[in-house]
Write a structure and sequence with these properties.
With 473 residues, the chain is α+β, with helices and mostly antiparallel strands. The chain is 24% helix and 29% strand. It has helices spanning 6-42, 222-225, 242-259, 273-279, 313-319, 349-365, 380-388, 393-404, 468-471; strands at 48-57, 60-67, 71-80, 83-96, 99-104, 116-119, 124-126, 140-142, 152-155, 159-162, 229-234, 262-267, 285-289, 292-295, 301-306, 309-311, 327-331, 370-374, 406-412, 420-425, 433-439, 445-451, 458-462.
């Protein structure tokens, strides 16, 4: 046994006491942490148990979500002052037999519904037996649609919609979107069996039987997606429309970036031709939104309108350095899909075809795989989603042309039989009127009511069976 000096013994005791206290503190802390972990583990995750849905029109939709903690969300999607709006109500519910009662949070009475519903044998919610929930047209029907279970989905009118229960603003603006994998609505789209496959869910063998009615998740290999380059340009618009165009194309940019695609963006007044041409080198995707023209001598070339002014067809084909077999998309550009904002009557299928083929000409000279034009809002993301899933462009064109318009013709291109031209038209809804915007010599915008007429708003010129494998060659 070693005898220690009293001072040394005291120091050793202090050290031992310190370590005992430290060990005790660690044990208590671990116990508390373990207890917290157990509490977190035992905390029940709120799950969606039922969804009821109604689409009165494309611009008037209602979703009722019931959760297993007896809370609900009632969301009414409408267009207000030309802007998409999601009016949301939350609260608690009671369900007994075939009767559902909603109790709005902090409200005695709902602004949107009567509060009491009856569930019938057709899986519908009615406000009273034999009557509809709102008015004489709306019925909320039980839905098993997978899009309401995803983190986000894309609606053709309302854009990116959040399904997060904690999110009050269901129409998330692009700048608030997370930098994570984008999740879209999926129906009848199976993941790729081989992760190295370029195509997920659609193969060359089963393409004919593919269900084209839904927008699916992008199953393309992430490493391949990172190799894709895209250029997005929004040009000048004197009618102040480019504010909406910029917001819409920024949503497209977020969608592509979240997939891993390299994206270069140029929004007026920061859309300079020198910067665009530099970014276009070996770009696989080129997207333009803004003013459109058919200028030049003799009026046979498409154009874009940016900081430098009008860039005509020959400048496009000489200045852009796109990847061979690139995908070119024009959105909201006059003449690009056939119709123009200054048309006062039906221009006819021949003029519409001429305009579309003229607009595609510069990109055919660049050996693009497909030129696609669409004048509808939020039409770019659904097209790219299907394209990334391996659907041939001629089938995607027909899908969306028939969704919004009617396919007017599909024919071989006038000068190059390898390409196909597709034109679609939309008949007027009735004896209504539309607004014609023009500008006088003083730069003042003039609004004039004119009678509705037939228009041409979805078109394409491309290699008919062109798919994403071709773009990546």
């Amino acid at each position: 046994m070693v005898n220690l000096h009293p001072n040394t013994q005291s120091a050793v005791k202090n050290v031992m006491v310190y370590f005992v206290l430290l060990l005790l503190n660690f044990t208590l802390t671990s116990g508390i942490k373990a207890g917290n972990s157990d509490k977190q583990r035992n905390k029940k995750e709120v799950r969606l148990v039922k969804t009821f849905y109604n689409e009165l029109t494309k611009e008037d939709k209602t979703v009722l979500k019931l959760y297993d903690d007896k809370t609900y969300e009632y969301i009414h999607f409408i267009i207000k002052r030309k802007q998409p709006v999601a009016k949301r109500e939350t609260g608690t519910y009671k369900w007994k037999n075939n009767k559902l009662v909603l109790h709005p949070r902090n409200e005695k009475k709902s602004k949107y519904h009567g509060g009491k519903f009856y569930y019938d044998e057709q899986n519908r919610l009615l406000d009273k037996k034999g009557r509809n929930t709102i008015g004489n047209e709306r019925v909320l029907t039980l839905s098993n649609d997978e899009r309401f279970k995803a983190l986000y989905y894309v609606d053709s009118v309302f854009g990116i919609v959040s399904n997060d229960k904690k999110t009050a603003n269901k129409l998330r603006d692009y700048k608030y979107l997370p930098k994570s994998e984008y999740v879209l609505h999926v129906e009848k789209v199976e993941p790729a069996s081989n992760e190295k496959d370029l195509v997920g869910g659609v193969t060359e063998e089963n393409a004919e039987n593919y269900d084209y009615t839904a927008t699916g998740v992008v199953n393309l290999n992430r490493e391949i997606l990172k190799k894709i380059k895209a250029v997005i340009v929004v040009g000048k618009d004197e009618f102040d429309g480019n504010k909406d165009f910029i917001k819409e194309q920024k949503e497209v940019a977020v969608f592509l970036k979240d997939l891993g695609v390299e994206v270069k963006e140029f929004y007026y007044p920061n859309s300079k031709w020198a910067d665009i041409t530099k970014a276009s080198v070996d770009a696989h995707i080129f997207i333009y939104s803004g003013h459109g023209y058919t200028m030049g001598e003799p009026d046979v070339q498409g154009s874009i309108y940016i900081n430098d002014g009008i860039i005509e067809g020959p400048q496009l084909s000489e200045g852009l350095k796109l990847h061979t077999n690139a995908l070119v998309i024009f959105n909201h550009a006059c003449h690009s899909a056939g119709s123009s904002a200054d048309d006062v009557k039906d221009i006819g299928i021949q003029v519409a075809t001429q305009r579309v083929e003229d607009y595609a000409e510069p990109f055919m000279k660049l050996n693009a795989g497909c030129y696609y034009a669409n004048n509808y809002n939020r039409s770019v993301i659904p097209f790219i989603t299907d394209f990334f899933n391996g659907v041939p462009v001629n089938k995607i064109y027909r899908k969306y042309a028939n969704k919004w318009d009617k396919v007017e013709l599909v024919k071989k291109h006038k000068t190059n039989p390898l390409y196909e031209t597709g034109i679609s038209s939309r008949m007027p809804t009735g004896n209504g009127y539309t607004t014609l915007y023009t500008m006088n010599s003083n730069g003042k915008v003039i609004e004039e009511k004119i009678k509705e007429h037939k228009s041409y708003d979805v078109a394409y010129v491309g290699l008919p069976n062109y798919i994403i494998k071709d773009m990546l060659k």
